[in-house]
Amino acid sequence: MSLGSLTARDRVGLQDFVLLEAYTSESAFLENLRKRFHENLIYTYIGTLLVSVNPYKELGIYTKKQMDIYMGVNLFELPPHIYALADNVYRTMLTESNNHFILISGESGAGKTEASKKILQFYAVSCPSTKLMDNVRDRLLLSNPVLEAFGNAKTLKNDNSSRFGKYMDIQFDHVGGAVGGHILSYLLEKSRVVHQNHGERNFHIFYQLVEGGEEDLLRWLGLQRNCQQYSYLVQGECAKVSSINDKTDWKTVRKALTVIEFSESNVESLFAIIASVLHLGNVKFIADSRGYATLNSSPEIHWLSKLLGIPTQVIQVGLTHRKIAARSEEVLSPFTIDHAVYARDALAKAIYGRTFTWLVNMLNESLANKDSSRKTVIGLLDIYGFEVFNVNSFEQFCINYCNEKLQQLFIQLTLKSEQEEYEMEGIEWEPVPYFNNKIICDLVEEKFKGIIAVLDEECLRPGEATDMTFLEKLEEKMAGHPHFITHKLADQKTRKTLERGDFRLLHYAGEVTYCVDHVLTIFHLQVMRQSKNAIVQLCFPTTEPDSKKRPETVATQFKSSLVGLTEILMSKEPWYVRCIKPNEGKQPGSFDDVLVRHQVKYLGLMEHLRVRRAGFAYRRRYQIFLQRYKPLCPDTWPNWKGTAAEGVQCLVKHLGFKPDEYKMGRTKIFIRHPRTLFATEDAFEVCKHELATRIQAKYKGYRVKGHYMRQREAATTIETCWRGLKARRERQKRAWAVKVIKKFIKGFMTRNQPVSVDNSEYLDYVRQNYLTRLKESLPKTVLDQNTWLTPPPIMKEASEMLRKLYTRYMVRKYIQGMTTERKAQLQIKGLTSSLFKGRKENYPHSVSRPFVDTRIKINVQTKVISFHAFPQYSVPVVKYDRNGFRPRFRQLIYTGTAAYLVEEAKIKQRVQFNQLKGVSVSNLSDNFFILHIQSEDIKQKGDLVLQCDHIFEALTKLCLVANKENCINVVQGSIKFDIQPGREGFVDFKSGQETMIYRAKNGHLMVV
Ligand SMILES: Nc1ncnc2c1ncn2[C@@H]1O[C@H](COP(=O)(O)OP(=O)(O)O)[C@@H](O)[C@H]1O
Ligand SMILES: [Mg+2]
């Protein structure tokens, strides 16, 4: 039961029949199976047994992904699947290091072979692999198509029905790698070689060879590409089937044979045999005059002889006569046609049957594991199920006998293990009523009394043995057995359903009527012993016990092989897959109640369920039970401190289980009714959600908290680092600052000493500092003489030089920015300065007044110009008479050669520059000047006493025009001048509050 999926149980029925409340009801069982089948859920458990219903369609549940899902997962944790079972077997084998087998049973067409293939494929994918193992794995996988080609055929029930029983061992090394394999085959249905019922075919390989064989091969084998030509292939009248592609299957088989390392010669011999069987089937007999059989098919004999390497003569005789030992001689006795045909078919069957055995041996050689270290194995038993036909021959008898044996084994193993479990757990064993089929097994196999014993006796006793004598013998021995009926032994009613030559067995799975025709077989070995075909030589060895000795009959051989199989299985742990066929028509989605009910019955599923449920539906180890349900009880959640058993006891008490509802074993708890478990499970389901939410919340909180803590830690770390860094920087800075300051102070203290290490930096600093400051505070104009930063002592010299440089620079800049007129003007002003600066008191007032070329109206000038040379300067003046010192307004005009005193354009006086002796001015702030004129001539007027508001301009111009720069005298006190030659006058100058000009009493002009 898949606990994890129990919630879904209402929708798709129960995943485990053990939980079926009405576990004794076949209808309830069927109902669950049907419900799931219609939901495409073909697998259901009964405990660890897997019930599989053939879906007859692809379900897409055998993918690699599915395999991965089921790998390493507990059987009950996922929905039932063949992979889950396979995986569980595998893991149990690995952990317990013991051997296991999986018994796959079911009716023909129920899906047994498919199931075994799925298991094999699962192992091929899930096992660890190495190159060597890959090799083994490929061979294991490829042995299947070969076996199927030779051992499978289309039947009415299944287009690919296995016509032999197969037990396959897969061997694993201690780490679980597949390292080898072994196949045992049982009871190939040889009769199929010579006879097929309507709608059935011979073994696939015949059709594959004829349809797919290469031209060359067919020519060499003497075959035609037409199945209709061969009487062994057409009896079922369906050589061609849409579901089978013989051509592609042929290719697969050929490839598989190569991989499995069949030599070319072996392959040739093998197909020679297959071909010879077909030729043999075409051999015809006609009656000669005495009614004995003679051959009528020379080409077939020719090919038989060629392919088997037996002389034609030998074949001819062998097919039409039998040898009878008469005293010391051997006598040939001819066959009737019937006998000849029977003998021919018997030969064909024998050849095919033995070749099949040889093939299996070859496969085994190829799969054999050469390494002798200890292996564990998983056996796969894919054995034919019960078969009931209209006519059931000896082969069906064997098949059904085999099923009886397996049923017996099943009963023993399940009951035994169940009983052992109860014993081990110390729980009272409550016997389950079930049908034990031992009585039927005994009927068949008991020594001296069983059917096989009787058959042996009949075959081997001297004298003519026929089918009827055999039947009589049986009737004699078995009379009164509840499971054996013949026509003679039956009552009135049943007798009608029986032929005279039939006997009927009441198998555990139902009644089967067998026909005793041809139960006794005849061998002829001697012909085949002469064969040159390598395989035939191996199959019919000359050392084989001769018919003279007591050979084992087929039935005995089969019986002993079954005993062998039983022994093999008994030594291993059993697992079961029960295959069920849902309908007879191979239809997907159709569920035939009657048919399924019948299979459920004879597969013993109800019995198995009853046994599993014997008393307790559910059992689980304490640990597992506690682990799952501990959240349901506060004492056990989240952890139980004591033993698991005590925990479960506590849990169960809390849940309120009634004492008769459960039992405590040694290691397991046993729960009687499924409903108890369901209630627990439902409670758990509810609780689970709460828990999940709580856990989720806790976990989320935990995650977020963790995240927050980490962030906080990170922030602190970053902060610490940053602070450290900052502190270190600060410290460095301070240390540096201390050093700098110290040095600064030292530098300051030693600043006046010669340059040394101590003060060089300080001095540099002082210099730089001074220069920077100086840069900011340079004088803005040339005239600004005061703003010059006081230099530190060491910079005195440099400062002086800089000051000069800068002044020159400013001057230069000033000059460059000057107009020519202004330059000229300034030059004149310069001249003025050199003449008067510091000498005449009112000079500073004149500096700011610009000089001009004339101060008189143009027209006055022009008049003068018209008479004389070009006037270069003119200015109004006041002329004081030499005698009376009366002031008169005149204009003073300079030309290139002379100065004129003009009144209203009339020249009053002309002074030639060369006659000009000098000019005198006072040192005071008056505007008087006296022109001293040279005069030898008496008539000449004396010196001129003039007053001019523009005295400095007029005098400077005079110097320039007259080119007499030294002519000006600055005088203190009085100026003496000539009134006339020989007669002198004086002008006195005095400082005073008010400007006054007057004739003083001494006759001098007084200027205050
Ligand atoms: N699990 C399955 N899924 C799909 N089809 C299946 C499955 N099992 C069987 N079949 C179909 O049923 C047919 C018969 O199955 P097979 O295994 O040969 O039967 P058995 O061996 O029991 O006689 C297969 O050829 C296949 O078409
Ligand atoms: Mg099969």
TrEMBL record:
GO terms for cellular component: cell cortex; microvillus; myosin complex; plasma membrane. Keywords: Actin-binding, ATP-binding, Motor protein, Myosin, Nucleotide-binding, Repeat. Residues 823-1008 form the TH1 domain. Residues 13-685 form the Myosin motor domain. Residues 562-584 are annotated as: Actin-binding. GO terms for biological process: actin filament organization; actin filament-based movement; endocytosis. One of its GO terms (molecular function) is ATP binding. It comes from the Eukaryota. It is found in: Cytoplasm, Cell cortex. Pfam families: Myosin_head, Myosin_TH1. Gene3D superfamilies: 1.10.10.820, 1.20.5.190, 1.20.58.530, 6.20.240.20, Kinesin motor domain, Myosin VI head, motor domain, U50 subdomain. InterPro entries: IQ_motif_EF-hand-BS (IPR000048), Kinesin_motor_dom_sf (IPR036961), Myosin_head_motor_dom-like (IPR001609), Myosin_TH1 (IPR010926), MYSc_Myo1 (IPR036072), P-loop_NTPase (IPR027417). ATP binds at G106, E107, S108, G109, A110, G111, K112, T113. Belongs to the TRAFAC class myosin-kinesin ATPase superfamily. Myosin family. This is Myosin IHb. It comes from Esox lucius (Northern pike).
